[in-house]
Amino acid sequence: MEEKRRMINMITSKYNIFQVVKENIDLMEAIEYYGFQPIRKGRYYWLLCPFHSEKHPSFCINGNTFKCFGCGVHGDVINFVSLLFNLKPIDAVYRLVTDFGIDLPYAKKIDKIYCKAKQNYEDIKLYQAFITQRDRIYDYLCNIRDIYSRLKELITNPEDIQLDEFVETCHKQDLIEYWLDIILTGSIQEQYEVIKSVIKEVTNDGK
Known about the structure:
By secondary structure, the chain is α+β, with helices and mostly antiparallel strands. It is 66% helix and 8% strand. The protein folds into 2 domains: 2-105, Alpha-Beta Complex (DNA Primase, Chain A); 130-206. A 5-stranded antiparallel β-sheet has the order 1-2-3-4-5, covered by helices on one side. A hairpin with a 2-residue loop joins β3 (59-62) and β4. α1 runs antiparallel to α6 (107-153), α4 packs across α5 (89-100) and α6 (107-153) crosses α8 (188-206). It starts with a helix and ends with a helix.
C-alpha cells in the first residue's frame, strides 16, 4: 500500500494534475452538473447537504470551496466529487477530467505510469500471498517430518523394519526432506511446484 501511495503521489506531484483540474472546473459548475441546485442567500450559495439527511440547508458554497455546518465535510471540487461518488482523490480527478472533457497534460504518460504502479501493487500482493502459503507449507512439512522421526524411534524390533508401513514412512520422510530443501534453497518456480505437490498429497490422503 505504501508503495502504491508513493507512486501516485510522485505522479500527481510531478504533473500537478490536481491543480490543473481545480483551475479548469469551477466548484459551482460541478455541483450543478451533478444535479444539485444551490440557492443564493446573502454572499453565499446553500443547498441541502448531499452527505447527510437534513431539512434546512447547511451546505455552504463559498467560491471554489464548500463546508457543511451540519456534518462538517469541507473541501474543493475534487473533495466534493470524491465524497459524492465514494472515490479516492486521484479517481475523482479522472472522473472530473472525463465528465468535463479536460485536456490533462501528459495524460497518456500519467495513465501508463499509474497502471504500472497499480500492476506493481497487485504483483506485491500476489507475492505476499505466495510467501504466506510457502511458510505454512514449510511449517506443516516440519511437523510431519518430526512425527515420522518419532515413529521410527518407536521401532525396536528388527523384524518391524521390513513392515510396509515402516518402509513407506522412510520414503515419505526422504520426500519431505527433499521438499524442505527446495523450499529453503530452490527458485520461486521450484518452491511453487513443491507447494502444489504438497497440497495434492494432502488432498489425496484426505480422500
